[in-house]
Amino acid sequence: MKFDRNLAIHIADKFYDAMYDFPSTVEILVQDKALSYVLDGISHEIYLNFDQDAYTFLRRPNAAKIDIEFRKEEELYFHCRVIGTDCDFYYPVGPYITALLKPVILDGILPIVKVRSVHLYYNLVVLSIKIQIFDELTSEEDDISVV
């Protein structure tokens, strides 16, 4: 999705509300943080036990695709797959990121998940991802002021 200033502020407001309402968050509750999530994305890591699926991700990180979908009981899950293989499974998004993203997705805005890296850490395969709203940012993003 291309960057839109008004939409970015609208989403930042939703993120701010979610951050404020989430009971166990230790994030600094300021609108600047919510806006940075919208503009810079949300960094997150998925930890997979070292099995065949995790090994497939480790061997073919460039073919890894991750989407966010609603699953049972309207909970958000990452749909993880490696293109060209039968590696295909769901991983829970987690309560904090669900709180941030659910209102935005219900508005019809689907975030983009980009795989940044895949590496082995002891007996876990760690997928480092970034969840972004906009895939194209313009110089206009620098002009956003938080009121």
Beta-strand level of the residues, as a percent range?
25-35%
E-strand count: 6
Structural class: alpha+beta
Radius of gyration: 16 Å
**What profile does the largest beta sheet have?**
3 strands, antiparallel
Order of helices and strands: HHEHEEEHEE
Lateral strand order in the biggest sheet: 1-6-5
Instruction: List low-pLDDT spans.
Output: none
Tally of helical runs: 4
Task: Calculate the terminal CA-CA distance, rounded to whole Å.
Answer: 25 Å
Shape: elongated
Q: What is the helix content?
A: 25-40%
pLDDT averaged residue by residue: 86
Question: Would you kindly provide a written description of the structure presented here, covering whatever features stand out?
Answer:
The protein has 147 residues and is an alpha+beta fold. A hairpin with a 5-residue loop joins strand 2 and strand 3. It is elongated. The protein starts with a helix and ends in a 15-residue tail after the last strand. The relative contact order is 0.25.
Nutshell version of this structure?
The protein is α+β, with helices and mostly antiparallel strands and 147 residues long.
Topology:
Blueprint: H1 5-21, H2 31-40, E1 42-49, H3 52-59, E2 64-70, E3 76-82, E4 88-92, H4 95-106, E5 112-121, E6 124-132
Antiparallel strand pairs: 1-6, 2-3, 3-4, 5-6
Question: What would the keywords be for this entry?
Answer:
alpha+beta, 3-stranded antiparallel β-sheet, elongated, single chain, 147 residues
